[in-house]
Specification:
The chain has 1150 residues and is α/β, with parallel strands linked by helices. It has 34 helices and 44 strands. A hairpin with a 5-residue loop joins strand 43 and strand 44. Helix 4 runs antiparallel to helix 6, helix 9 packs antiparallel against helix 10 and helix 20 runs antiparallel to helix 27. 43% of the residues are buried.
């Protein structure tokens, strides 16, 4: 090939190719993208687990964190590396400083990693907190000196958000000035981009500012995770302390190796203009100086920085650069390009892209459905922690996004695994990753029956939960909160301000002096109801205050103590606290009723014993005998409902929802006079359409608009209807408002509205109708009154008030006129008309009642005369509702996590469960059958109000455990008079049937067999002996009997903990020892090894005392070449049975 240069500077090529090709060379006039600016991101970008893959793969990053961990130790901080590995739970008061120091460390480490790869910047700059890493990277200040400074920067700050908060607003500076010009107490803190400004303000101004912005339809987000009102004069005291500190401390400053554009002064610091005084000013005033990132970015561009590499997690600040420079030539270089590939990086790049259609849709959906004005959502934003979005709202977002993207077919996924915005995107792009639960399109078959709650005797078992010696008990009289005002409130606050590491039993006494018992007098009722409202508001404020406190491991146990026949408001507080327990993980709650009046010491002793029983939430002591509630089936014959044409029905709240559907059924079958009372105008679209529909079936339908909370209106309409017809036969009450919000998010108005709308209306109906003697007053309540529900603390309380008022009213008039129905969730009606709530309940696996089932059940109530409060249940749901009230969280090390569907999920691996290395056969570790039995036993004890026994326990496939995790679930399914438990991964490993037995159990004592010959423990665990390692070498003493059966003893003090749950750690090793002793019988006689394959019956006696020495005695042992079988009794020192195993079968393996 030849090339010839012509006179115009163009090269002409000749040679192997046909034709001539001209290439012109000209001088490039555009941006020089080789000049890179390193942009260190601000503190809002940090999150646990950031850059985990880089930390694990890059040596220099590990070195920096080794140094940071040693420095942290000096300040009594936990190791910062735990923030990156996400393996450490940080105290809430220390979390902000740990987060900041971790971000600073990773930024400096990443900078040095880039330098080692010959990636050099022209200029350094930082956004807000990133200023400090930029100063270190430039060489101006050393890493250790800056670490010390940043530690004191946080230490000098007050507790989180005491001085104020920051709010990100989707508006520019001028818009904000125009909207908030009348506000005195706010400051412009960050000019992030032309589209976003951040202000700082005092907490008192937040509500007013939010209203002003909402009025103008301006999007905003309160930055709850930012602990201080940074870059504002609100922190001037902190700035003063920092100035004094750095001037008193000898810090060695150096000229910069790399120029730095300061976010504080907006000046470029170079070797030529370097001034120590300027650095002192930057360090001391950075915390109060506003950030003008628009000006900062523009100056960088003027300095011919056209490429930007963001050093920190995410891409938030790179997007600000895009927004500022817009169409100007510039380039964003992804940091991930220079790091080892990681899941988080690949996820982040997808989610962070402005062009990702899923990301844009999710943002719009969140803004539309939640009311939160959110800007610049990052991939790492988590629903609960970052955005304050609860599970139902999260479900609503997901359902809407699936619908908008036409991906409704994606239904087999676990909602509990969708934690962040990025998880939704990954669900849409990789749905099979999340498909681990049943298909929601397969409707669960339901079997609803009518039940009532009855009480049956039940022993108190006290050692299924470990006793906590670090527990203190305090008696609080709730009447003090009502009558003593601040003094009563301070009593509870002072208790909680004691040692934060101490578990507290708060014994709340709700006595009958709290409320006037003469409720059915209109002049008294509102006054008494306001007392109940005051208590709920107090505990709302209490929860908010607790959330601000240190994030310690201490828990709060609340025991509400009332009389068995107590005031309706006292009993209803039980429903309130049950809902609160489901919202607040630190809380365990019990409602203890009693017919006697114990002394303070007796009460404390009783409560402390009850709190050791994690499964029974409602208990009653009647004449010192312990009772628990149970579902009693109402076996009525098939309902025969006949409502004649002259009958008069008045339905309150009947123009919409479930009441309307039931009235529609009545109108189709019968034509009574039907008067529907509602608050909505008759012209309201839904009301008008529904009334028109009813009149098509029954022309005698009339709609009257007024609020049943107005007593005189109720009296007037009842009088008018009675005067016209001479009788009122049935009243149906479906009145009520439900506001689904966590208690901490409910306003005073929300609380008052929910309670008044439900309770005041019902009292007005009861009192106003009494003189007309209707045959039945059927009012609608909810199962949340029995079990509580997150987001429905007040609604649950109101519904239980309804139930208790029903009982009280009937007793007052001496007749069963009023009936309260506790409805289960409906299928697509009422609250479940919201597709997200409907989907949420399906994820939980809860049965949903339809209109045909509901009407058939309700038909019984028009004529029945026995039951005042009736529960409609699919019995299997009873355990699902009840289970989440238990203290299952204590057993998480054993059981794993409880998912939304009510199944436990757990990972086993040799790294997380090293004890399994001691349960190894020929180099392979197997999960002991004893652990499967113990897990089943623990779950059964939690959801049962009786003793449980396990039958037909089978090992279907041994669970082999490797270094990498093996995930299992434990599923529970109700069958005929029992439950079927299974532990499964891709295979079923263990299964058993669980049966309820009587609530009381007598001690069973057996005699130990005769001693024949001792067996040395050293002879048991050796080559050609039992294979168990040290943890499972639990036969501390053994002997043979005349029947050549092997008995054994265990010294409990020598047992090595597995999960640090004392009883279950012991139970696992007792059970495994039982199998070992049977295997030892075969080993001694036939020199064969055997493994368990099944047990016919396992019965537990948890009422008996556990002694230091445990004896295991076999019986009916049978051995042949293939099978070993027998029974085993596990006894305490009094020879009382603790565990009874019958029909144990082991298979011979060699």
């Amino acid at each position: 090939m030849q090339h010839i240069m012509n006179d115009q500077g163009t090269l002409n090529y000749q040679g192997l190719f046909v034709g001539r090709y001209g290439i012109s060379y000209h001088h490039y006039q555009g941006a020089d993208f080789s000049k890179i600016c390193f942009l260190f991101s601000g503190q809002g970008a940090a999150y646990p687990g950031m850059f985990l893959n880089a930390y694990q793969s890059v040596n220099i990053i590990q070195q920096y964190f080794n140094l940071a961990d040693s420095l942290a130790m000096k300040y009594d901080l936990p190791p910062l590396s735990g923030y990156i590995t996400d393996t450490h739970t940080f105290n809430k008061t220390k979390l902000p400083i740990v987060r900041n120091l971790s971000l600073f460390t990773i930024q400096v480490a990443l900078f040095n990693h880039l330098l080692s790869d010959n990636i050099s910047p022209k200029i350094l700059t930082g956004f807000s907190f990133g200023e400090f890493a930029a100063l270190v990277a430039s060489g101006i200040i050393g890493f250790e000196d800056m670490f010390d400074f940043l530690y004191h920067r946080d230490i000098f700050c007050p507790l989180e958000n005491v001085l104020g908060v920051m709010i990100a607003i989707n508006a520019d500076y001028n818009q904000i000035k125009n909207i908030l010009d009348h506000k005195d107490n706010y400051y412009i803190s960050n000019l992030n981009s032309p589209n976003q400004t951040v202000i700082s303000t005092t907490k008192n101004e937040v509500r007013s500012i939010k209203k002003s912005l909402s009025r103008q339809k301006i999007e905003f987000k309160v930055l709850n995770l930012v602990p201080q009102p940074y870059h504002s004069p609100l922190l001037k005291t902190v700035a003063s302390k920092l100035s004094d500190y750095i001037h008193a401390k000898p810090i060695k400053f150096r000229k910069p190796r790399i120029p730095v554009l300061s976010s504080v002064t907006h000046a470029l610091i170079t070797q030529d203009n370097f001034s120590i005084t300027d650095i002192y000013d930057i360090l001391s005033t950075q915390i109060i100086k506003p950030v003008d990132f628009i000006n900062q970015t523009s100056k960088l561009y003027q300095l011919e920085c056209y490429s930007f590499l963001e050093i920190g997690p995410g891409h938030i600040f790179s997007r600000f650069v895009d927004d500022i420079l817009m169409d100007k030539e510039h380039k964003i270089i992804p940091l991930e390009f220079y790091l080892p590939e990681s899941k988080s990086a690949s996820k982040g790049s997808n989610a962070a892209s402005k062009n990702n259609p899923f990301f844009s849709l999710i943002r719009k959906t969140i803004s539309k459905l939640t009311g939160y004005e959110i800007d610049k959502i990052s991939f790492e934003d988590k629903f609960q922690e970052d955005l304050g979005i609860d599970s139902i709202k999260k479900a609503n977002i997901i359902v809407t996004v699936l619908k908008e993207t036409k991906k409704q077919h994606i239904s087999k996924f676990n909602l509990s695994e969708i934690l962040s915005i990025g998880d939704i995107i990954n669900l849409l792009e990789n749905p099979q990753k999340y498909c681990r639960v049943n298909d929601l399109s397969i409707q669960k078959e339901s079997f609803f029956k009518r039940y009532t709650i009855d009480w049956k005797p039940s022993d108190l078992t006290s050692f299924s939960k470990p006793a906590d010696n670090n527990t203190n008990s305090y008696i609080i009289h709730l009447r003090d909160i009502i009558y003593k005002g601040n003094k009563g409130e301070k009593n509870l606050v002072s208790v909680l301000c004691l040692d934060e590491t101490t578990v507290k039993n708060l014994i709340l006494i709700a006595d009958d002096q709290m409320f006037d018992d003469n409720l059915f007098m209109s002049q008294n009722f509102t006054f008494e109801l306001n007392k109940l409202i005051k208590i709920t508001k107090y505990f709302r404020d209490f929860v908010i205050q607790q959330a601000k406190g240190p994030d310690t491991k201490s828990d709060i146990n609340i025991a509400l103590v009332t009389q068995q026949e107590s005031h309706p408001f006292n009993i209803a507080l039980g429903a309130f606290f049950k809902s609160l327990k489901k919202e607040w993980p630190r809380l365990f709650f019990k409602h203890i009723r009693t017919t006697c009046t114990p002394t303070s010491n007796e009460l404390i002793s009783l409560v402390e014993k009850e709190m050791l029983n994690p499964g029974q939430v409602d208990v009653c002591y009647m004449n010192y005998i312990r009772y628990v509630p149970w579902l009693k089936t109402i076996d009525d014959p098939q309902a025969i409902l006949n409502i004649g044409e002259e009958r008069v029905i008045i339905a309150f709240g009947g123009a919409k929802g479930i009441t309307f559907l039931l009235l529609q059924k009545i109108c189709i079958q019968f034509q009574p006079y039907l008067y529907i009372i509602g608050r909505s105008s008759p012209e309201e679209k839904t009301v008008a359409a529904n009334i028109l529909l009813l009149k098509q079936y029954n022309s005698k339908v009339d709609y009257i608009a007024f609020d049943a909370q107005n007593r005189s209106s109720v009296e007037a309409i009842l009088a008018k209807i009675h005067k016209k017809h001479g009788h009122i036969d049935f009243i149906i009450n479906g009145v009520g408002i439900e506001i689904s919000l966590l208690l901490s998010h409910k306003t005073d108005q929300d609380i008052e509205q929910e309670l008044n709308s439900k309770v005041l209306a019902y009292v007005n109906i009861l009192e106003s109708s009494a003189k007309y003697h209707p045959e039945k007053i059927i009012t609608f309540s909810s199962v949340v009154a029995r079990f509580g529900n997150p987001g429905q603390t007040i609604y649950a309380c109101a519904n239980e008030v309804i139930n208790q008022l029903t009982i009280k009213y009937n007793r007052q008039i001496g007749n069963l006129t009023a009936i309260s129905i506790n409805w289960p969730p409906w299928d697509g009606v009422g609250m479940t008309a919201n597709p997200a709530i409907l989907t949420y309940l399906k994820w939980m696996g809860v049965s949903l009642i339809n209109i045909d089932q509901a009407f058939e059940l309700m038909s019984h109530e028009f004529n029945q005369t026995q039951y005042e409060v009736v529960e409609y249940f699919d019995k299997q749901d009873f355990y699902k509702y009840l289970f989440r009230l238990t203290n299952y969280r204590y057993f998480q090390p054993l059981l794993g996590e409880l998912n939304l569907g009510g199944y436990f999920e757990k990972d086993f691996s040799l790294k997380t469960d090293p004890y399994l290395l001691d349960h190894c056969i020929e180099g392979v570790s197997y999960l002991p059958a004893a652990i499967g039995i113990s897990m089943f036993s623990c779950i059964a004890s939690l959801f049962s109000n009786s003793y449980m026994c396990l039958k037909d326990f089978h090992i279907h496939n041994p669970l082999i455990v490797y270094d990498s995790p093996t995930s299992i679930t434990i599923q529970m399914q109700e069958a005929d008079k029992h439950f079927l438990f299974t532990m499964q991964s891709t295979l079923i490993h263990f299964s058993c049937k669980v049966f309820e037995e009587d609530g009381t159990r007598q001690e069973v004592k057996v005699n130990q067999p005769e001693f024949k010959a001792a067996i040395s423990p050293e002879a048991i665990y050796k080559e050609k002996g039992l294979f168990h390692g040290p943890i499972f070498q639990t036969i501390h003493y053994a002997w043979t009997t005349d029947q050549n059966e092997v008995c054994g003893q265990i010294d409990n003090s020598k047992l090595i903990p597995i999960y640090n749950i004392p009883y279950y750690d012991q139970l696992i090793l007792w059970l495994d020892t039982a199998f070992q002793l049977l295997a030892l019988s075969a080993l001694i006689q036939n020199q064969v090894m055997a493994l368990p394959i099944s047990v016919d019956l396992i019965r537990f006696f948890p009422k008996d005392e556990i002694s230091s020495q445990i004896t295991l005695t076999p019986s009916q042992v049978f051995i042949n070449e293939e099978i070993i079988q027998g029974n085993m009794a596990i006894l305490n020192q009094a020879n009382h049975i603790l565990v009874q195993l019958e029909g144990i079968k082991l298979r011979v393996i060699r």
